[in-house]
């Protein structure tokens, strides 16, 4: 079983910064890609940023230049540094990982429970 635990969400004023963390644990053989998604009230979940095990990244156009995704493979942890936050960034942010484990040796997607980010104007 693989578990993802997010932390770092909270309330911040527009223009401020937050750093989200997500630590994966369990019988993990390897984590392939990791990423962050978000879902605002009444909206569908959308990709914010993702990073492969080789370090390649991609970002949603709305956050490119403001957010930075990184990972610490030794700690099975992914981070999302969010700068210049806007009210439109308000959402529940979910950690995602494609991991090979005892449950699925060939890889399977796992999700965290989410952490709320609220940006006030």
Secondary-structure blueprint:
Blueprint: E1 2-7, E2 10-13, E3 18-26, E4 28-39, E5 46-51, E6 57-59, E7 67-72, E8 77-82, E9 91-101, E10 108-111, E11 115-120
Parallel strand pairs: 2-11
Antiparallel strand pairs: 1-3, 3-8, 4-5, 4-9, 5-6, 7-8, 9-10, 9-11
Number of helices: 0
Strand content range:
over 45%
Main β-sheet description: 7 strands, mixed
Number of strands: 11
Q: What global shape is seen?
A: elongated
Q: Please report the distance between the alpha carbons of the first and last residues.
A: 40 Å
Mean pLDDT, to the nearest integer, reads 95
What does this entry look like structurally?
The structure is a single chain. With 121 residues, the chain is an all-beta fold. 0% of the residues lie in helices and 60% in strands. It contains no helices and eleven strands. Strands 2, 4, 5, 6, 9, 10 and 11 form a seven-stranded mixed beta sheet that branches. The model has no long low-confidence stretch (mean pLDDT 95).
């Amino acid at each position: 079983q693989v578990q993802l635990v997010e932390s770092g969400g909270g309330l911040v004023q527009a223009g401020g910064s937050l750093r989200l963390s997500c630590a994966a644990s369990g019988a993990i053989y390897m984590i392939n890609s990791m990423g962050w998604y978000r879902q605002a009230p009444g909206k569908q979940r959308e990709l914010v940023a993702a990073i492969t095990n080789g370090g390649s990244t991609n970002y949603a156009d709305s956050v490119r230049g403001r957010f930075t995704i990184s990972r610490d493979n030794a700690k099975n942890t992914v981070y999302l540094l969010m700068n210049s936050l806007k009210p439109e960034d308000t959402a529940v942010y979910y950690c995602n990982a494609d991991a090979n484990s005892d449950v699925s040796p060939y890889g399977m997607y796992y999700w965290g429970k989410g952490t709320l980010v609220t940006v006030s104007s």
